[in-house]
Write a structure and sequence with these properties.
A hairpin with a 5-residue loop joins strand 9 and strand 10. The strands form four sheets. Strands 1, 2, 3, 6, 13 and 14 form a six-stranded mixed β-sheet that branches. By secondary structure, this protein is of the alpha/beta class. The radius of gyration is 21 Å and the shape is globular.
Length: 372
Amino acid sequence: MIIWADQKKADSLTEFAKKWGEQQGITVTVQTVANDLQSNFITANQAGNGPDVVLGAHDWIGNLVQNGSILPIALSAEARANYTDIALRAVTYEGQTYAAPYAVECVSLFVNKDLTQVTAPATIEELIAAGKAAGTEVILSLPVGEKGDAYNMEPIYTAGGGYLFGKDANGDYLAGDLGVGGEGSIAAAKKIGALGADGVLRSSITGDNAISLFTDGKAPYLVSGPWALGDIKKAGINYTITKIPGFGDIEGSAATPFAGVNCFYVASKGKNRAFAETLVADVAKDSSFAEAMFPLNELPPAQKDLVDKLKSSNPDMVTISEFAAAADPMPAIPAMSAVWQPLGLAQANIVKGADPEQTMRSAGEEIKRNIG
């Protein structure tokens, strides 16, 4: 049986998957696909020479279902009861469950306690004031870049009143209700523009340098995810993690990041479907797989029993898991692929001084054209 994953997931899974295979009387091979894992999987699966199982993000589901690349899976009542609500919601698409989650993640606010005493700012305005008082090179290290970063900007965008897609009564995203270009997104764009003008958001801060600006002591605040923790701990930063605040001058403002869920999918054309379904059932059954993978790729658990185990040994993971519970699952609908680039570029241009209303309306029009 063959499993495909990216480098970090493959490294963390290989040994345990091999042992699991021995218990089943089969050979399990974990193969690393370093680039374009999703598209390579779709192509290989269609050709009949893909893996039996693939590890990936939950927001692939809409595209994978549209391409007939994955099968629905059955989760036992016990497994479902052990999963966090956000994990189950993320892997449910059009009323069916399509994956076994094992980890959740979202961005949070990392604070250098040696640079500021404001370790849990109640508003973005309080964060900015404290950041300026710290006298550091950067107030808030949040990746923007020249082309934008809609994923990391989402908490600011939502705090300002923006949304991407409306939801139906079940909480499923509606491709026909696009928020980009609407009044809420324009209000958010104006906030983003003001933060750019004030030097709080900068296009010079990217995914490549955002974490190092924080670990080098050049910023008291960082917006990032659990993947930043390794570098932060290695640098010996005296840190804490708190939720990203909303704007103080907007009633009910809440910064809502995206929740991403890592999960196991069963390939529709794998040669070992029965074993693939057994493995995914075992992933879901309890936290054995997630716990075995954790030391080599620390991510907040999707399963409640592992969250409980980590409360004393790794409270950071529990904290981020709690923040993820209040986040919005990244939209898994195919229409989302039309959003990332235009929205990110619009936000970057607004940070650099472009007109917020015109730029956001144009982005919305482009996204609608691309959705079709």
